[in-house]
Design brief:
The chain is mostly beta strands and 176 residues long. It is built from no helices and 15 strands. The chain is globular. The mean pLDDT is 93.
């Protein structure tokens, strides 16, 4: 709905949509529906399919106009696709030798060069780790064991879910 109005209207072409994320400029929304990652202009218009996503599990639209997403709940890791269309590329792959089952729920840190994500070692969030991934180097770093849904909140806080609770901790973006 427009912020100056009380009535909301369904966006055409978004039937069955879930996990919406806005573009950094607020003009577009990406979402999962019918086994695909899609986008549509907030002002309306045609829906564009960006990538296959059989059971998408989280997305984040970065300042580089690319969307980092988990296309499938089990075993596919994180991928990145240009929001303007194009081929998707693999960012991470779960390592079954270490018990990883999926990487999901991505979130860009300010600046766009680091992604927070959950690395699952089984079906329970209690078996997950909140990690950071450098998009420049590909290096990963565990931030919190037993945590998911990581979000950065200025001026230096990390908010995340753990053990059924929402927690907040001081966080230095530069040092991760």
């Amino acid at each position: 709905r427009p912020m100056d109005q009380f009535d909301s209207q369904p966006m055409a072409g978004t039937e069955g949509a879930y996990s919406p994320v806005f573009s950094p400029d607020g003009q577009w929304v990406a979402f999962f529906a019918a086994g695909k990652l899609k986008k549509v202009a907030v002002a309306g218009g045609p829906v564009t399919t960006l990538a296959d996503a059989p059971s998408g599990l989280g997305a984040s639209w970065g300042p580089d106009n690319a969307i980092v997403y988990c296309p499938d709940a089990w075993g596919r890791g994180l991928w990145r696709v240009p929001a303007g269309g194009g081929a998707a590329e693999v960012l991470t792959r779960p390592d079954p030798k270490t018990g990883e089952s999926t990487h999901a729920l991505p979130h860009h840190l300010p600046g766009g060069d680091v992604i927070l994500f959950a690395s699952f070692n089984g079906p329970s969030p209690d078996n997950a780790a909140l990690e950071a991934l450098s998009l420049r180097t590909g290096q990963r770093r565990v931030l919190v064991q037993g945590a998911t849904q990581g979000r950065y909140v200025p001026p230096g806080r990390l908010v995340y879910a753990s053990g059924g609770a929402l927690l907040v901790a001081p966080f230095d973006r530069a040092e991760l």
